[in-house]
Amino acid sequence: MKMVMGYIAGLLFGLGLAVSGMTDPARVIGFLDISGAWDPTLMFVLGGAVVTSFIGYRLVFKRAGPLFGERFQLPTKQDVDAKLLGGAALFGIGWGLSGYCPGPAIASVGGLTIPLAAMLIAMVVGWFTARTLTR
Amino acid sequence: MDWMVSLQGLVGGVLIGLSAVWLMGTMGRIAGISGIVGNLITQRPKGDSAWRVTFVLGLISGPLLIMALGGGLGNVANTTGAVIGEPAGGVSLMLLAGLLVGLGTGLGSGCTSGHGVCGISRLSTRSIVATVMFLITAIVTVYVVRHVIGGGA
C-alpha cells in the first residue's frame, strides 16, 4: 500500500511541476532574473503550494498519525548552523546556473537530454560527497 | 495571455501542495525531493525504499501524462504545447550545477520542496532561513551570469 501512496504523491507532484511550467528551466531562471524581464510564475507556484500544504498539514496533524505508517516523521533539528547555511548557499548557485532544482530535474527525465543526464549524474555524486563529508 | 501562465503556476502549485499533504497524511513523510531520492540512492534504507522508487516513477510520469494529453496543459515559456523545456546550458555547465545542487541539498538537508514548500508550511525556522539563503545565492548567480558575464540579454 505504501508503494501506491508513494506513486500517487509522486504523480501529483509531477503533474504540478508540468502544469506550472517548472519543468522549463527558462521559467525558473526568468523568475530569478529580477533585473531582466521578470517572470513571476514561480511565485504563484510556491504560493499555491505553501498555502495548500499549510492548510492541509493542519488538517492532517489533527489525526494521531498517518494512515499507513506508525507516526509523522518530522525533522527534529532546530539550530541554524553553518552546514545548513553553506549547503543552501551552494544549492542556490547550482539552481541559478541550471534552472533545475532536484524535483524538476528528475521529473524532466521523460524529455531527457545529454546536459540533463550530466546534471543528474553530477547531482548523485554531490549527494554521495555530502554524505561522506558529514559522516 | 500572461494571466493564464500565472494561473497555471497557481494550479500546479496547489497540486504540489496536495502531493505534500497526501504524503504526510498517508505515510507521515515530508515531500522533499532531495531527501526522498538522495536517501534512496546513498543509503538504500531497508524496508523504506520501495515507496521512494514508486514516488520517483510517479514524479516522472506526471509530465509524461500531460504530454500524452497533447501538451496543451504544459507551460513552457514561448513554446505552446511543450511540457518539458530545454536545459539552460551544455554538459560542462550542467555538471557543475548538478554537483552544487547535490552537495548543497545534501549538506543543507533539503531543496525547494523540502525547505521551500513543506518547511515553510510548518513554519520551520531552519527551512525559512535556508529558503531565503538559496533564493539569494540563486538570484545573485543569475545576475552575474546574465548581466555581468553575459553583458545583458
TrEMBL record, chain A:
It holds the Pfam family DUF6691. This is YeeE/YedE family protein. Keywords: Membrane, Transmembrane, Transmembrane helix. The chain crosses the membrane at residues 41-61, 82-100, 106-130. It comes from the Bacteria. It comes from Vreelandella vilamensis. InterPro entries: DUF6691 (IPR046513).
UniProtKB/TrEMBL annotation, chain B:
Its main location: membrane. The keyword Amino-acid biosynthesis does not apply. It is found in: Cell inner membrane. It comes from the Bacteria. The chain crosses the membrane at residues 20-41, 53-76, 88-107, 128-149. Keywords: Cell inner membrane, Cell membrane, Membrane, Transmembrane, Transmembrane helix, Transport. The keyword Amino-acid biosynthesis does not apply. Belongs to the TsuA/YedE (TC 9.B.102) family. This is YeeE/YedE family protein. It comes from Vreelandella vilamensis.
